[in-house]
Amino acid sequence: MINIRRRKILKGTLAAGAVSLAASAGILTPQTVLAAWPKSAFSAKSVNDAVNSLLGSSSLTGSSDINIKTPAIAENGAVVNVSVDTNLKNVSSISILVEKNDSPLAANFNLAPGTIPFIKTRVKVRKTSSIIAVVKSGGTLYSAGKEVKVTIGGCGG
Amino acid sequence: MAKKWKVRANLKGDVTTVKALITHPMETGMRKNKKTGKKVPAHYIQDLVAEHNGKKILNADWGPAVSANPYISFKFKGAKVGDKVKLSWVDNKGKSDSHDVAVK
Q1: Which region, left, alpha or beta, applies to residue A8 given φ > 0 means left and ψ of -120 to 50 means alpha?
Q2: Cα angle A63-B74-B55, degrees, rounded to a multiple of 5
Q3: What's phi and psi for B59, nearest 5 deg?
Q4: Domains of chain B (ranges plus CATH)?
Q5: Does A109 fall in a domain?
Q6: Shortest distance, CA A120 to any CA of chain B (angstroms)
Q7: What is the pLDDT of residue A154?
Q8: A93 near B CB under 8 A
Q9: Are A111 and B57 a contacting pair at CB < 8 A?
Q10: CA distance linking residue A51 with residue A67, whole number of Å
């Protein structure tokens, strides 16, 4: 009984220690960047964390109304064309994530009303991965993904 | 030195398509200099804003995973021939640049 409690207490202190370490690391990094730039979303290590940090929720609804165009095989992962368009209405943002990159979030585009929900850009893809587009439409997050096979890595490989 | 911007804004019907190519190294901070073995410091565009006649139409937050010499294309409604489309960016070193082009 005593032993179990001891384990729990130890676990608790370790976890708290890790959190405070992370926090102090965050504080220590120079804040030269714009306040608006979502730093934590770009440094998040998983798709869920990145989307949650960027858009405030990680519940994604799969949608067939999102159309992602990427090459099926990318010879050079440093330059992968991605285009996203959608029939969804009231789109306020489109985010592009590369699932297997160290930090999945590649880019986020906030669209003003009157801007057509269409984005085309180029991203780096470290290794074969699915590319995920998250579209925010009327407060709901919709997503769609497509896999890209990479033969040469894109992140300094 | 290569041109820093290549931007086009073409009107077709009521939709203007903007295509832009920006010269920027977009270093991730992960790449190593092969001679010295030191990491090349991160240097990438973080914020890109597009304006149509002074009104914001799009703003983008970019991470280092956007390719070097970024390309972006987007479409918007409500522009006339001769209207101004302005693009500007700020990178993680605090440098910035802007460029404007007339809608054709």
Answers
A1: alpha
A2: 115
A3: -135, 140
A4: 5-102 (2.60.40.10)
A5: yes
A6: 5
A7: 56
A8: no
A9: yes
A10: 19
- From B31's Cα to the closest Cα of chain A, the distance in A is 5
In a structure prediction context, what are the per-residue pLDDT tens digits for chain A, which is 157 residues long? 556 666 555 555 555 554 444 444 444 344 333 447 888 888 888 888 999 889 888 888 988 899 999 998 888 888 999 999 999 989 999 999 999 888 999 999 999 988 999 999 999 998 899 999 999 998 899 999 999 998 865 555 4
Beta strands in chain A (DSSP E): 61-62, 66-69, 73-74, 80-86, 91-98, 105-111, 115-123, 129-137, 140-150
Inside any domain, residue A121:
yes
Cβ B66–A107 below 8 Å, yes or no?
yes
Residue A28 maps to a domain? no
Could you list the residue range(s) of the whole structural domain that residue A84 is in? 39-150
Integer CA distances (angstroms), B14 to A26, A121, B23, B102, in order: 46, 22, 29, 15
Per the CB < 8 Å rule, is B57 touching A156? no
* Structural element, H or E, at residue A8: helix A2-28
Mutate to test the interface with B, among A51, A76, A111, A148 (most CBs of B within 10 A): A111
Cα-Cα end-to-end distance for chain B:
27
Question: How far is it, in rounded angstroms, from Cα A121 to Cα B84?
Answer: 22
- Amino acid identity at A69: K
User: Does residue A155 sit within a domain?
Assistant: no
The Cα–Cα gap between A81 and A146 comes to 12
Alpha-helix runs per DSSP H in B1-104: none
